[in-house]
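This is your field. Have a critical look at the following sequence-structure pair:

***
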Amino acid sequence: MDSLSRGFTGLDSVKGMDSLRAVEGGSITGKVTPAEGAIAVEADNGSEKLKGAVSSGSFAIPAAKAGTYTITIHGKAPFKNAVIKDVKVEDGKATDLGEIKLEQ
């Protein structure tokens, strides 16, 4: 095997490692009703806080590390904040919280 062939083999190995890293972490999604009732969403795992925006009632927090989170939906007056505890995130998976109804 000449040095040029060996160089390409090494690059292919690095590419394979990048694809393995791509599945680290997951995402958290959901829908808030009423759609105009929330201004932001936050995910807290005790060591970091991730923030996401709410658009037309839907939200997504990408790149969440695997673990357990407390999700806070920040309500816009007159709506109250909603808190969802013990949300589990797994590597490479989306955790859908479904519909979250805000109370006044």
Q: What stands out?
A: The two ends are 71 Å apart (CA to CA). Residues 38 and 76 are 5 Å apart (CA to CA).
